[in-house]
Amino acid sequence: MRGGLLSSARYHTVSAGLDGNGKPVAWQQRIVCQSIFVGTPFEPAVVKNGVEETAVEGAADLPYDIPICWWNGTSTRWRAGVHLRSVGHSHTAFVVETFVDELAHAARQGPV
Predict the structure, then answer these.
(1) Coil, helix or strand for 82?
(2) Is the sign of the CA dihedral 72, 89, 51, 40 positive or negative?
(3) Vertex 51, ends 92 and 83: CA angle to 5°?
(4) Segment 66-93, tens digit of pLDDT
């Protein structure tokens, strides 16, 4: 089977803690994704301390006031060729906002 380049694979796990009023007080997010920059001339500009910035954008800068935030991004390699179809916010925004809705449901509050 022949085809073009694929969008990189991604995997997220997210957990959080709520206080007695249902407000988030801690957030933990782990992201594993296939690197599109490692091994290219762009690697020095995009990979910082072993973390590819495009893999964690949107998770490393959450727009919510949560006192304790921890995230980790890990790149993996895959033999299939990949390219960036969109910025990192495309996958992190979906995961973050879906999980915020889950937290609101757990706290018996509306997602807004």
Answers:
(1) strand
(2) positive
(3) 65
(4) 999 988 877 766 666 666 666 678 888 8
